[in-house]
Structures are given as C-alpha cells and as structure tokens.
Amino acid sequence: MEILIKDIKQIPKYMIAKIKKVDLITNKDQTAQRRFYAYLACWKKQLVKVTVAVRTKYKRWQCKQVAVHFLNSKTSYVKDLIFYPVGGYQVGWYDLGLDKTEKFYEDGQWYENNTKLFDPYAHVINLNFLDRFPEFQYSEYKKVRAKDILSYLRLYREFPETEYLLKSGLGCYALCRTILSQMRKDKSFHKWLVAHKDYYMSSGRYYCDVLLKAYKKNLNLQALQEFEERKKDLIHDYHGKDIVKLVIKKGVLGEYEKLFKYLDKRNLSQSLYLDYVRACDYLNLDLTDDSIRYPSDFHRWHDIRLQQYKTVREEELRKENALRARERRKREKERKLQEAQLAKDFLIAARKYLPLAGFTEDEHYAIFLAQSKTELINEGNALSHCVGYNGYDRKMAREETLIFFVRKLEDLETPFVTIEYSLKTKEVLQCYAYKNSTPDDNVLNFVNNKWLPHANQELARIAA
Questions:
Q1: Cβ pair 415, 379 in contact under 8 A
Q2: CA 385/CA 369 separation, integer angstroms
Q3: Residue 320 maps to a domain
Q4: Is the per-residue pLDDT at 387 higher than 80?
C-alpha cells in the first residue's frame, strides 16, 4: 500500500527522548552545527526510515523531520532540506526559532523526491526494530557496514548470500554484487573465500575482480593483488601514465606483466625507464618494437638514446634561438622604420600647422608647436604629466590633435603649460601645468580668448 504525504507521522515523544539521549552522548559540547539521526518505523505495514536533523542554539535543543525513505519504494519525501555540492546539506530552522530569517527552501511542506541526493548519512538509533520483520531475521544487519540500511535490506532480498559473508567475517564484500553473483552460481566460491581469508580480505583490501580471477585461475591471491595495485598506481600516476601511453599496446594481453617483469629483472626504477621511453618517443622511434621498448642491455641503450636526444634537442634549440633572433631583428627593423615614418609624419604635420603658433600679441606669454616626439617627452618629464607618452605623437602624426607649449616671455626655455588642441572640433581639449594642475586665470584667458581665435582663423586659412 502506497504511503502518501498525509500518512507521514510526527516523531513519537519517546523517540525524541531517545534521539536526545544519544546526541548528548555523542556530542557532549553540543555545538550549533546540525547533526542527523534516523529511526525506523512501520507505517501501513511498510518499513520506513525517518531522518531527523538536530541542532543546539541559544541553549535550546531542537529536532525536526527532514526526510522519509521507504524500503519498498524509490520515492522519498523531503522537507526544509537542500543539498549543495560544495557545502553539503543545509536545514532550515526558522520555524523552530533557531534562525532569524526564513530560507528560500524552507516552507514546512513535504515534497516528493526520487533521487539519492536527499538521503544524508545518519546513525540509526533503533536498528533492533528490524527484529519485528521475520524476513530479515537472518540478514545479520547489525554487522553490515552499509551507509544506508534500506539499501542493504534491498540487496539482501535479492542476494540472501550476504548472510554467509557477514557470518564469515567478510562484511567488506557483503555489498559487492560481483561476489554475491559468483556465490550464487558457484557454492564452493564461499568456501574458497573462507579458506583464503586473511587480514587483507577481512579489511576489504583485495579487489573483487582479483578474488574472482584468483579463484577461477587458481592464482596466488596476494601476488595478483600486488600486481593489480601496481598496475593501478602506474595508470593513475602523473608521470607513470606516460609509460602506459607510449609502451603498453592497447588490446594486447600480458602487456603489463611483460613491463613489470622487465623492470624487476633488471632492477630498474620507473623514473629511469620513463626517461628512456620519452627519449625514444622524441626521436620518433617505434616503441611497438620490443627490441626498442625492452632493450637487452638497458643501461647502454639508455645512455645512447639520451645522448641522441640531447644532440637533437640542442640542434633544435639552436635553430629555434636563431629563428627567434631573426624575428627579433626583423621586428626591430620594422619598429625603427615605423618610428622613422612617424617622426617624418610628425614633422610634416608640425610644419603644416606651424602658423597656428604664430600668435605674438601678448606681453606675458608665447606659444610654440611641438616639432618632435623628443620635445613631447622633455615637456612631459619637466611638468610630470603624460604628454610624452600615451600616443600623443601618433595623434599629431595622424593630424588628429596638436600639442602646443605655453612659455613665459621672460623664460622661453622652461616648460610652463601644455595644450592639446583638436583639429576636428577646433577647441582646446586639455590645458595643464605642473602635475596636471589647472593654470591660473591669466594663462587660461590667454589661451581661450587670445590664442584660440587666432588658431582657428589660421586653421581655416590652411584648410582653404
């Protein structure tokens, strides 16, 4: 019979007391961090697991239901719970007064959910509740190491053989379908596991495929496990995977055995062999040829290949350096040509618009047009502003703007004020003194009311 949201029951008072008792034992400091517990119940003759969130704040201990999962259904119900891939599970506590603001996922409603995300790991405090179900009396559920008891019970229904593994002290493999399937097909497989049981098997160190392979082919279990671990380490090692890529032939059986046998027989380190195969690969040698990838006199050929690699690499570096030197010379030549053309265009523009600086009807100031990039740099350095840089020379060469220098008549050699004049809008764009400060009113009056009308008049004459 299907359980609906309306059938969800509140946490019994005795269960709240039990949860609190367990929590006070396992969390003596009672931090504000939330904790999860679970208890088993029977609703409409169905086994359910109820997950409860617990939190202590403001010296108040509170708990609330956040998830309900069923043994006979993949559907679950979730309330006031959200999962973040980075932050993990978050619970809303606004309704219990432990949070000052209500979270967006917290509305106190149960929602149907069919994924495994909303099933946080939680200690089941009444595991003995399963004794009420005759079908699980031989499940050895107390010995299982499953994170989710319901998942184990579903597996037990499918493979009752899990009982034998748990009773034999092989609980690490009780959740392995590969092992369980083999036990169902071959009854003697369990006897073989028990006969070969050791510390590594009890702790679950042996890979499941190793156990099957050792059983079917009557191989040494520890030697086979060590081989598989060595193979796994090689494949996942940052540098070792290059050996796999260059030496191991895909789809060919016994390749790893051949590699390890070769290394062990000659007592070669993985890093030494890696240097050799990388050198061979760089030299474009055929590493599918056993005489190359597994030379009989390794150390001799190791030195030969590395010397060949060094020679080839040095020659390539020499050519690369020569090419870069040619490119640098080419770029330097192009740069000088561009600078020469820029200086030429700059001078042409300066001579063309020189009449704009011919204003002499003032008894305090004179104005000059910049004649070169060098003059711009000297002006900018003297007045601590950017006229010598930021492309003002290019703007003048392209006849976009003109740079003028204002001088005092009594000191024509000392930089005083710099002007940027727009040839397009016929107005002063910038007028700055030392460190981009604004000149005094006398200078501004000279620039805007005396020189600017003269400059615009001369510009119109030149354009005509």
A1: yes
A2: 17
A3: no
A4: yes
Q: Are residues 368 and 455 in the same domain?
A: yes
Token reading at 438: 């604004």
Predicted pLDDT at 182: 95
CB under 8 Å, gap of 24 or more: what pairs does 413-417 form?
414/382, 415/378, 415/379, 415/382, 415/383, 416/443, 417/443, 417/447
How many domains are there within the chain? 4
Strands ordered across the beta sheet of 417-422: 365-369, 401-408, 417-422, 427-432
Range of the domain at 203: 133-227
Domain boundary pick from 96, 127, 158? 127
Asked whether residue 1 carries a pLDDT value surpassing 80, the answer given is no
Say what the pLDDT of residue 30 is: 80
183 and 164 Cβ atoms separated by less than 8 Å: yes
Of 227, 254, 282, which residue is a domain's last?
A: 227
Pairing of strands 88-91, 111-113: unpaired
Question: Residue 456's pLDDT is what?
Answer: 93
pTM to 2 decimals? Answer: 0.66
Assigned domain for 329 exists:
no
User: Cα(424)–Cα(411) distance, rounded to whole angstroms?
Assistant: 32
Shared-domain flag, residues 411 and 379 = yes
Q: Do 139 and 214 share a domain, yes or no?
A: yes
Residue 454 is assigned to a structural domain of this protein = yes
Provide the pLDDT for residue 33.
Answer: 84
Considering the domain boundaries, does residue 446 fall inside one? yes
Q: Which two tokens stand for residue 201?
A: 């098997």
Residue 31: name the closest of 101, 98, 125, 118 by CA. Answer: 98
pLDDT at position 447: 93
Enter the tokens of residue 23: 């929590």
DSSP-H helix ranges across 283-406:
290-293, 298-352, 373-383, 392-397
pLDDT for res 117: 77
Other C-beta atoms within 10 Å of 227: how many? Answer: 16
Residues 289 and 394 in one domain: no
* Composition of the chain by helix, strand, coil, percent to 5: 50, 15, 35
CA distance 99 to 405: 68
**DSSP codes, 368-384:** EE--SHHHHHHHHHHHT
